[in-house]
Each structure stands twice: as C-alpha cells, then as structure tokens.
Amino acid sequence: MDKFAICTISTKSHIFKSKALFDSVRRFNDVDCLCLLTDTYDMPLDGEGIFYNDLSVLSDEISIRIKKKYKGDRLRWACKPMYIKRLVQMGYSRVIYVDNDICFFSSADFLFESLKNSRLLLTPHYYSISVWQEQNWLEANFRVGLYNAGFIGANLNAIPILDWWANCCLYNVKKSAWRGLFDDQKYLDLVPVSFEGVEIVRHKGCNVAGWNLEVCTRSSAGNKEIFLDGVWPLVFVHFAKITYRQILNGSDKLLTAHLHEYSTMLKKHKHDYLPENELKRGLNDYLLYFRHIIWRIARLFE
Q1: Domains of the chain, CATH where assigned
Q2: pLDDT digits (tens, 9 = 90+) for 139-176
Q3: What gap in Å lies between CA 21 and CA 8, rounded to an integer?
Q4: Is 66 left (phi over 0), alpha (psi -120 to 50) or beta?
Q5: Comparing C-alpha atoms, which of 287, 75, 77 is closest to residue 187?
Q6: In angstroms, rounded to a whole number, what is the distance separating the alpha carbons of residues 237 and 155?
Q7: Quick check: 87 and 95 in contact, CB under 8 A?
Q8: Are 10 and 18 in contact (CB under 8 A)?
Q9: pLDDT in tens, 170-207
Q10: Which residues pair with 7 in a beta bridge?
Q11: What residues form DSSP beta bridges with 176?
Q12: What is the Cα–Cα distance from 153 to 6, expressed in whole angstroms?
C-alpha cells in the first residue's frame, strides 16, 4: 500500500509553526507528518502525531559533507533535498515538502495524485512580469528564481533530481545575484530544463503569498471562500513576512480571516504568539532593503 507524507524542516524555536502546519494538513489529508530538526537531538514527545527526526537520519556522503559545511538557515535549506530523498527511501512513495510557515485551507489530494505520474512538482512564485510598472518584480524572477523552494513534491523516481539539487547546495548556498545564486532556490530554474517528468503546478491556489498578489488576484463570493484569478480555490498560503505585511496593511485584505485562523493555530502551541511580531525587521530584511536601494540607484545610470 502506498504511503504518503508531508514534511518540513525546523529549528527547536519554531516547532510551534511546524505543529500549526500539520494541524492544518490533518484537517483535510490523512498522511504522515514528519519534521526534521536541525539544531537539537532532543526530540519532542508531545503525542501530537508528528514524527520527528534529527540530523542523524541524514547519513549519506552528501549529507555528511553538507552538515559539516553549513549551520543555521543555510543548513536547513541545504538539507531539504536529502531529507525528501531519505523519506522516499524509507518507504514513502510520494512526499510533499513545505516550509513550516505554510497553512493549508483545503485538501492536497490532487498534488499527491499528480505525483503518480510526475517525478517532481514545482510551484512558480508568480512574481509580476509587467515591463511597464513594478519592474523590480520582473527582475526578481531572474534574481530570486522562478520557483519557490517552500514547496517541493517528489516520488521515488525523483531521486536523481534530488541528488543533483543536493550537490548544488553542497556547492554553494548563498544570496549572490551577480553570480546567479539564491540560497537553495535558484537552482530549481534548471530542473524542468534538465530533467524529464517535472510538473509545474499551475493551480494558482497553491503557495499563495504577498509576492504574487498582482498575478494571483484574490476574489470572494461573499463568504470566507477565496478564489485566485476567479477560478482557482485557495489551497495553501505561505505566511512569509511579506504576506503578513500585505494582509496587515490592507493590501491583501481578503486573506485577513485566513491569517486570523492561522494565528489561532499558532497560539495553540505558543500562547504568547502575536502576528504583529512577524513584522519585526532583522538583519536579512535590512540587507534586502539595501539591495533594493542599490537596484534603484543603478537604474538612474542606465
């Protein structure tokens, strides 16, 4: 009998987000939920139906080299292809990886069904491609990548692709636009070109986020149900900082109820959680803002 899994990768401090993710999944799908923790060997024993793994589960040669080379965020990102591969090798015929700041609002069955024939699933960012306005988003397609690495679907036949991706991560995981690098993500641009059996998920209700507000337009029939481009029902939202920002400032107000629902799930596992805290800016935020200023200045001299 086929076994399906949804997995994520987290640190100990963000386990509460992984728990909320899996709470959302289990409302619609009867699948195993697995979480790799990259900064602790002390596995939680909370009886909530989540299977936790530590880094010892990744013991092949590439994984060992990755674990020696990276720490922190770069380690989490670089472990992604190897963790998916390990779960496939453990007997899961179809595996979906999602970042732990994602929340499902309807079933992922059709994505698992796609993995019956497709080796790998990718979701586009759907950044704007307008050449007339907001050209920063047009160029972000080339700086950041066409596909969002917060979602990957794979089956047993995807192992050669995952091995290639893991070796890319071993080569380098960093943000360097002039070199064509963006963490683990930019490498995915090559996957549909270089490998057969790769499906680009065209369902715009998948990986809805602040960065695709212009392309994946939101509409409502007067209730909580949201449609993208008037056609696609909402499947899952990627609650990255930009998504919080767009919702809380009113730019993406149709997702307000969904943010409230997600926040309730998070508070179940972290009682003092406040969505406003997601807007606090860290070093990476300031670096991104600095790069944007450089981009604007560079355009003045074209």
Answers
A1: 4-300 (3.90.550.10)
A2: 999 999 999 999 999 999 999 999 999 999 999 999 98
A3: 9
A4: alpha
A5: 77
A6: 23
A7: yes
A8: yes
A9: 999 999 888 999 999 999 999 999 999 999 999 999 99
A10: 34, 97
A11: 181
A12: 9
Quick one: tokens of 75? 């380690």
Instruction: Write out the two tokens for 209.
Output: 């986020």
